[in-house]
Amino acid sequence: HLQLQESGPGLVKPSETLSLTCTVSGGSISSSSYYWDWIRQPPGKGLEWIGSIYYSGSTYYNPSLKSRVTISVDTSKNQFSLKLSSVTAADTAVYYCARELLEWPRNFDYWGQGTLVTVSS
Amino acid sequence: DIQMTQSPSSLSASVGDRVSITCRASQSISRYLNWYQQKPGKAPKLLIYAASSLQSGVPSRFSGSGSGTDFTLTISSLQPEDFATYYCQQTYTTPRTFGGGTKVEIK
After folding, report:
1. Considering only Cβ atoms within 10 Å of each terminal Cβ, which end of chain B, N or C, has fewer?
2. B44 and A108: CB-CB below 8 Å?
3. Which residues in B lie closer than 8 A to residue A71 (C-beta atoms)?
4. B28 near B43, Cβ under 8 Å?
5. What are phi and psi of A76, to 5 degrees?
6. Nearest CB partner across the interface for A47, out of B32, B55, B98
7. B91 within 8 A of A106, measured Cβ to Cβ
């Protein structure tokens, strides 16, 4: 049974870089069938897709965040990571990692439990 | 970006009611439309994929329909555990985008 688990600091200061890791267990991140995604949800608001990565390292980013986002993968640790630079209070959100099917129908079938990151001094 | 518009943004219904939620895409997305259920403090859960396919383990009272730009999620007989927020999502292209959500509350 596949599981995803986010980890990282719950508090980040304004202008600093938010760093999170998603650890995948019960399956291989090197599968050719999936992308690995980051999604966030500000408190009381809707879902925003941040970006995705393939095990080879190919990435797709949301243009609204592209200048500040880096997603990377470490296949040896079965992990992928998110870095978001120059954060402000608007980046306060629950951050989720998820698995996305590469081909039709491209759904997000497994999600992590989410981790709240607060941006505050 | 493809905009996804859900309606209504909230609704009140009773146990046993038939409930429908609509999702409209700003351009055609074929059938690249997924529906998720989210309960407070929990991650979204995939209910319907490819507009009308039921995810494994999801009760058959949930169904989806539509193609192109207009889609519907229907709950045939609302159960107490169905009170939650529902989101549509397009995966036709990047950036992946979600609807604003529909909160289903108890009347």
Report:
1. C
2. yes
3. none
4. no
5. -70, -25
6. B98
7. yes
What was the pLDDT predicted at A99?
A: 98
Query: ω before B40 within 30° of 0 (cis)?
Result: no
Mutation target among B91, B93, B97 for the A interface, most CBs of A within 10 A: B91
Q: Scanning every residue of chain A, which has its alpha carbon at the shortest distance from the alpha carbon of B100?
A: A46
Half-sphere exposure of B88 (CA within 13 A, CB side): 35
What tokens does A49 get?
């897709």
**Using the beta-carbon criterion (under 8 Å), do B100 and A46 form an inter-chain contact?**
yes
pLDDT at A63: 97
* Percent of chain B at pLDDT exceeding 90: 98
What confidence tens digit (pLDDT) does each residue in B23-74 have? 999 999 999 999 999 999 999 999 999 999 999 999 999 999 999 999 999 9
pLDDT bracket for residue B107 (50, 70, 90): confident
Coil vs helix vs strand at A92: coil
- Numbered residues of chain A with Cβ closer than 8 Å to any chain B Cβ: 37, 46-49, 52, 60-64, 96, 98, 100, 104-109, 111-114
Burial of residue B60 (CB within 10 Å: 0-12, 13-18, 19+) is: exposed
- Residues in B touching A115 (Cβ below 8 Å): none
Residue with tokens 């992590």: A112
Count CB atoms within 10 A of the CB of residue A11.
11
